[in-house]
Amino acid sequence: MNRLLLALIISLWTLNCVGTDVGNPQQAPPQMHLEFSVFDDTASEALPMDNGLEIDEAWMVFTRLSLRHADTCDEDVDLTLGEPIVADLLDPESVIGTRELYYWRGEFCRFILHFDSIDANQLPEGAPAELGGHSIVIRGRRADGTAFELRSDFSDRLRLDTEYEAFRLDENPEILEVAFAANSWFDVTALDAIESEGDLIVIDDESHVALLDYFEAAVQHSARLFRKDILIATGEDG
Q1: Which entry of 27, 59, 112, 168 is 20 to 30 Å from 119 by CA?
Q2: pLDDT (tens digit, 9 = 90+) per residue, 149-198?
Q3: Rounded to an integer, what distance in angstroms lies between the CA atom of residue 134 and that of residue 132?
Q4: What is the spatial distance between Cα 126 and Cα 145, in angstroms, rounded to a whole number?
Q5: Sign of the torsion formed by the C-alpha atoms of 229, 49, 53 and 55
């Protein structure tokens, strides 16, 4: 066999193994699509709650997403977000940023989103100016109609763990919903006890700090992860 024929045979064998776009296309990795909402999926302009509060807007910023494989459940692996996710939980159409990303199929024991603040000049169109320098802005009203606004620069993990068994992700696209039980976010008695401060009660790291601390602890426990309307993971301390 001459060298030219041998080289031709090797080249054809290599093409058959690697594949081409026409004859044997490479399979693209599956995609994950993220949705965000309040826990009871109230589809109204305001979220009335049994405790008398109404939430009008609930903006959150997430800058990282991690998954943890169920086999060892001891190492977080990041999925790449091209840009921060900015969302108003009461408006499904408000989600701005990367919420469709590639993942790998398998069984997982933990889903982690990372809260972080973004600068005012990074705010996408439609986000409130007060979100600049913060990771969370909540706007609402007390039972007496007094408006309040919470601003947090919370920069911890939102960790969602399975309770009994791992959850499997294997569809393309895989649609997951991160939902929050907003009725647990506020110490309503303490909020109602604040004397009216004009048109707006501001809760931040300088005003009513105890209420801010209460919220930041509660928001992690209030989170749930759903797949096809089935609860697969719940919030824990970061």
Answers
A1: 112
A2: 999 999 988 999 997 889 999 888 889 999 999 988 999 999 999 987 67
A3: 5
A4: 25
A5: positive
Amino acid at 183: N
End-to-end, the C-alpha distance of the chain in Å comes to: 67
Nearest to 222 by CA among 179, 164, 187, 175: 179
Instruction: Report d(CA 73, CA 166) in Å as an integer.
Output: 10
Domain ranges of the chain: 26-236
CA distances, 201 to each of 34, 140, 168, 198, 213 (Å): 32, 10, 44, 8, 16
Task: Give the pLDDT confidence of 4-13 residue by residue, as tens digits.
Answer: 333 322 232 3
In contact, 114 and 136? CB cutoff 8 Å? no
Contact by Cβ (8 Å): 66, 45: no
pTM, whole model, 2 decimals?
0.81
Q: Which residue type sits at 144?
A: D
- Strand 100-102 relative to strand 47-48, pairing: unpaired
Place of tokens 């824990």: 236
